């Protein structure tokens, strides 16, 4: 039986990827039976254990095309495969920071294909991006909110839903929970019907049905803890907590904070909670400074720190407020 080599990718009607077509490459990867990538086998196998294992056995003659390249068909999307290959060739480009933030498609591709093809370095970079996007420490959370609101770039509502969906798919509760918290903050119509993508094509990205139900239920707990934490601001003064609290102007601050405490009405809490919706993890520094504006800076910091401590407790106990259905 004679083995006939495969024709070139272009002869079969595949589109060559313009940024990932190496003329001297010896491996062609066909993504989704549409787009062809020509790369170097030695480069890919050095980063991916799956590809390395794949080539640990001799390849049959018919696996090559007329140019002598080995041809492999992959079910992955061309976009995902491009990011994966580009990161292998140019790893420095994918070392992200606050000055060089990643887009969501890049993070998604590195996580998915890094896992699928056992490219640990790429997967770990994606995990690091997600940890920076959802820090466990509220001080880091607040710094992020002051610097644009997110580490990963993307349309806010779409981003929250897609991270939640991918975290569920990959069984990553570390990111699933805070992504669902972000979904809880979305308008109910967006939460139930989905969010429109930026491309204007009318396509919606929808949250998993079980997660929609979890978010709608979690809203009750988030609103309750938010109310409790805001109410707590009006129930104490610095002197109630510390016997020797240092205040540079006690003659002014003690009467001012006590006056706010004594004159507090439920309407003030309801007003603040109404403005925040379900954003129980978001900082209230400016609102607190405005509310206790007659006090000195140190006393205002006391209230801001106290509220931050309550938010940190919520962040630590997020699984108690958002119940993730079984994977």
From TrEMBL:
CDD domains xref list: BTB_POZ_ZBTB_KLHL-like (cd18186)
Annotated BTB domain residues: 25-92
InterPro entries (UniProt xref): BTB/POZ_dom, SKP1/BTB/POZ_sf
Origin: domain of life: Eukaryota
Protein name, per record: BTB domain-containing protein
């Amino acid at each position: 039986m004679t083995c006939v080599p495969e024709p070139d990718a272009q002869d079969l009607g595949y589109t060559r990827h313009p940024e990932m077509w190496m003329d001297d490459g010896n491996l062609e990867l066909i993504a989704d039976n549409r787009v062809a990538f020509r790369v170097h086998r030695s480069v890919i196998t050095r980063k991916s254990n799956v590809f390395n294992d794949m080539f640990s056995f001799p390849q049959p003659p018919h696996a090559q095309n007329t140019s002598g390249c080995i041809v492999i068909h992959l079910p992955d999307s061309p976009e995902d495969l491009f990011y994966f290959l580009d990161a292998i060739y140019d790893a420095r480009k994918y070392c992200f920071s606050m000055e060089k933030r990643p887009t969501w498609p890049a993070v998604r591709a590195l996580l998915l294909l890094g896992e699928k093809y056992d490219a640990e370095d790429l997967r770990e970079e994606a995990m690091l991006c997600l940890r920076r996007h959802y820090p466990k420490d509220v001080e880091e959370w607040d710094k992020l909110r002051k610097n644009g609101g997110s580490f990963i770039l993307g349309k806010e509502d779409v981003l929250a839903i897609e991270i939640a969906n991918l975290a569920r798919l990959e069984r990553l509760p570390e990111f699933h929970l805070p992504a669902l918290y972000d979904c809880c903050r979305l308008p109910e119509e967006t939460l139930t019907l989905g969010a429109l993508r930026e491309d204007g094509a009318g396509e919606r990205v929808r949250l998993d049905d079980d997660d929609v139900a979890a978010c709608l239920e979690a809203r009750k707990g988030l609103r309750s803890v938010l109310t409790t934490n805001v109410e707590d601001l009006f129930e104490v003064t610095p002197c109630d907590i510390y016997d020797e609290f240092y205040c540079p102007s006690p003659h002014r601050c003690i009467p001012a904070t006590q006056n706010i405490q004594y004159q507090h009405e439920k309407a003030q809490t309801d007003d603040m909670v109404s403005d925040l919706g379900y954003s129980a993890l978001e900082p209230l520094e400016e609102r607190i400074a405005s509310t206790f504006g007659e006090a000195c800076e140190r006393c205002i910091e006391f209230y801001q720190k106290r509220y931050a401590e309550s938010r940190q407790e919520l962040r630590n106990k997020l699984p108690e407020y958002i119940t993730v259905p079984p994977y």
